[in-house]
Records
---
Amino acid sequence: MDRIEQWDVFEARLTGPSGGNPFTEVGLTATFRFEHRAVKVRGFYDGGGAYRVRFMPDSVGRWTFETHSSAAELDGHRGAFDCVPAGPG
């Protein structure tokens, strides 16, 4: 299980379509959940078939996420990470 410090950046890395124009033809979002909250974040194409979704957790505890995409290869990926208190700066 990944451990991310509060206010640090979690990044989900996915592989998907690279043909056509993935910058405009492929939609990707992820919904991050913590307790009763849900935060929707937009992902992006990073070239070479690589897609990324970045999220900065603001609360300590277990976060889960699920991706949503117009491309089948990117849709329905699930994961979780533990957000831990930030260490001394």
Note: The first strand starts at residue 2 and ends at 5.
---
Amino acid sequence: MLKQNLMWVAWPAFLAAAVLEMLVFAFIDPSELHWRNQPVTWSAQAVYTLSFFIFWLVAMLASGLAVLLASRD
């Protein structure tokens, strides 16, 4: 049951993170990002990778909460 619940959480979250990544970076250029009034000096690939994992984590938290709430009686 744990593996099934994990896949119910991870797979939709992965797809959501992928779509969100495409939407966000269609409008934002990683070379123009700033953090605390300093330009981000990471490569574009590093920004894409880190942001994808952040999006995936947030989506997994939301999906996990949905599975948790749905499994309650």
Note: The chain has two helices and two strands.
